[in-house]
């Protein structure tokens, strides 16, 4: 073997040794680098899971990374804190999503869903949650004024809103921009069966004037203290011990009104 070939072989061996050593250094560096931030560690501890990344299985690693990413997306977008309530990994027929509630929110009324779309971007329904109290109060005020009584209760779920901003919300902003489902309780002392049809007619016309698309269940109840009805127990008042009669009415996006008498 001539000197040139020997020199080439020696250089190649040195390159391999140095290169291999460099790879080991890189591996060691990655291994030592912390993979979990303080939020993730606290979150994992609350879930009763290990707080060391290497001790999590691959599904747990992917999930805690995704949950943190989604929580940060919400907090950066809306400038408020959110509390995690649930997470679902992507399925064959279901997209990846996480649920959370805003600071001071209620899981029954204020659950926000963040979805990872096919292109990797996030979408959320927080505007529906943000406008619900204003929309619900607007309907409550109308019905209280209609019957001149506080013996009514409204429960709204906003299913769609086209509001561009959820800051400084007022009634005028809500017009033409809300679709919702409403459950209304009215004490039987205020409304007979005949009066219910009249009220439903006036109510849906009012909804149409404000361009609200809605599905509405109106319940006339007795043997009940109206203030005691809440989101957790409202279905309890659909039984014969409390429900005198009820009615469904709709305001469609076309403006068509349907009242099931």
Helical element count? 6
What is the β-strand count?
Answer: 9
End-to-end gap? 103 Å
**Series of secondary-structure elements, N-terminal to C-terminal:** HHHEEEEHEHEHEEE
The major pleated sheet works out as: 5 strands, mixed
Helix content: 25-40%
Overall form: elongated
Residue stretches low in confidence (pLDDT < 50, at least 5 long) are 3-32
What are the key terms here?
261 residues, alpha+beta, 5-stranded mixed sheet, 4-stranded antiparallel sheet, 6 helices, 9 strands, 24% strand
Characterize the structure shown.
The protein has 261 residues and is of the alpha+beta class. The protein has helices at residues 3-32, 38-46, 58-78, 126-147, 171-174, 193-209; strands at residues 82-88, 97-102, 112-116, 122-124, 152-161, 178-187, 213-221, 243-251, 257-260. It has a five-stranded mixed beta sheet, covered by helices on one side. A four-stranded antiparallel beta sheet has the order 1-2-3-4. The longest helix has 30 residues, at 3-32. The protein starts with a helix and ends with a strand.
How would you sum up this structure in a few lines?
The chain has helices at 3-32, 38-46, 58-78, 126-147, 171-174, 193-209, and strands at 82-88, 97-102, 112-116, 122-124, 152-161, 178-187, 213-221, 243-251, 257-260.
């Amino acid at each position: 073997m001539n000197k040139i070939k020997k020199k080439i072989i020696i250089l190649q061996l040195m390159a391999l040794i140095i290169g291999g050593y460099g790879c080991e250094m890189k591996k060691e560096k990655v291994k030592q680098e912390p993979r979990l931030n303080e939020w993730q560690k606290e979150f994992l501890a609350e879930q009763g899971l290990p707080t060391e990344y290497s001790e999590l299985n691959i599904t747990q690693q992917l999930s805690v990374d995704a949950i943190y990413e989604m929580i940060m997306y919400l907090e950066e977008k809306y400038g408020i804190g959110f509390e995690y309530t649930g997470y679902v990994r992507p399925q064959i027929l279901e997209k990846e999503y996480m649920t959370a509630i805003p600071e001071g929110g209620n899981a029954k009324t204020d659950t926000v869903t963040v979805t990872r779309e096919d292109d990797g971007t996030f979408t959320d329904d927080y505007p529906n949650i943000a406008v619900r109290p204003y929309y619900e109060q607007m309907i409550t005020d109308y019905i209280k004024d209609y019957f001149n009584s506080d013996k009514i209760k409204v429960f709204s779920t906003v299913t769609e809103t086209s509001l561009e901003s959820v800051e400084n919300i007022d009634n005028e902003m809500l017009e033409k921009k809300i679709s919702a489902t409403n459950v209304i309780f009215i004490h039987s002392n205020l409304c007979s069966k005949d009066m219910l049809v009249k009220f439903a007619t006036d109510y849906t016309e009012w909804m149409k004037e404000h361009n609200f698309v809605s599905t509405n269940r109106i319940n006339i109840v007795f043997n009940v203290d109206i203030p005691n009805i809440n989101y957790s127990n409202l279905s309890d008042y659909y039984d014969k011990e409390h429900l005198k009669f009820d009615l469904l009415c709709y305001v469609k996006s076309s403006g068509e009104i349907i009242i099931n008498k």
